[in-house]
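Could you help me review a protein record that somebody else here produced? What it holds is a sequence and that sequence's fold in token form. I need someone to confirm that the token line plausibly describes how this chain folds. Take the sequence as given and treat only the tokens as open to question. This is what I was given:
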Amino acid sequence: MALKKGVEIKPATGKLGVLTPGMGAVATTYFAGNLSIRKGLTPPVGSLCELGTIRLGKRTDNNTPKIRDYVPLAEMPDLVFGGWDPIPDNAYEAAVRAGVLETKHLDPIKDELSAIKPMPAVFDQQWVKRLDGPNKKTGTSKMHLAEQVMEDIKTFQAKHGCDRMVLIWCGSTEVYRKPSDVHSSLAKFEAGLRASDENIAPSQIYAYAALKLGIPYANGAPNLAVDTEALMELARENHVPIAGKDFKTGQTLMKTILAPGFKARMLGLQGWYSTNILGNRDGEVLDDPESFKSKEVTKLGVIDQILQPDKYPSLYGNVSHVVRINYYPPRGDNKEGWDNIDIFGWMGYPMQIKVNFLCRDSILAAPIVHDLVLFMDFAKRAGLHGIQEWLSFYWKSPQAPTGLYPEHDLFIQLMKLKNTLRYLKGDDLITHLGAEYYD
């Protein structure tokens, strides 16, 4: 949709319900962090919404408020959490099992986490082959399952007195599938739900349920979900914001930081070899080749778009880009990303860069979830709908309008995000021209 400058933004009054399909390591780390931060026990490191600032006007104006003081965002105490999962553990039990957070951080919020119990999930093991559990919905059709999800959402909203809702997928990576005919229009998709079409994945059922109720939906995994013609049509029809896909956390974050630097300095690239080892539930799921394919596609697209080999063939026209993910249980959620980068410089002389990122996957993902929850709710209150391309900053594979390539450069993404906020508030965009160009 076309943006209007200086729109009316509804205030963030009342409670905001946050529902996550998937209540594993990422979701429970997010819930726990939010509850801990509310009590003043830990800081919101990694959250642009909580810590980030935005410059307004000239540098000499010295006007740089916090983002959350500039635009109306939901406050942490107003968030209410819930979700679905095939494993029936409550959020405290799931967080302990995930092994991301230490006991000293979980114990002070044990009661609040224990009260968050997963609703029975829409789950089909053919889409996530290395995972199963007893807490699953049954239905006469996939449309019946979608209707059950809608009832879950309505019941949760009424029970907790939520004024607004947001759904964000925090579940496992489903097997790779390309769009089929059932995804080509909303009418065909709804007929496919009624007929339980085999090409409709559980994640698409959640997305459909949310959009049907007018609730913003963000896709945190590389699954095919709201990036189909059918669900984009529903988002437009019901004026709902959508965004995705695949949270940009560890290795891909490094690529979107480093690759723009190479291109800015016109340094050539011969090859980029990336491998990951991780031992959490995500690692186990990705040990299945079909699920890995979904992840591989989102990871491989980053370098080409940033470096534009068609425009710089002598520098980037023959890059060998390899991505591997290996399941290694002892590593747990502490993912390790190894990158070997072969670059070349003046007169073609070769150089190498080695990166060993010992990251904590869910610790990096949790603040992304938080920011997306707040910004998607903000988008809805600002009257935005359809693809929220200004939130590309958070995604490995940003969704873009048909006919446009996605922007992967982290620094361009951040400028686009902040300029969108300025535009919606009616302020001048920041161009970074020198002071000599201003009156």
Summary: The chain has two domains: 15-247+362-425, 253-358. The radius of gyration is 22 Å.
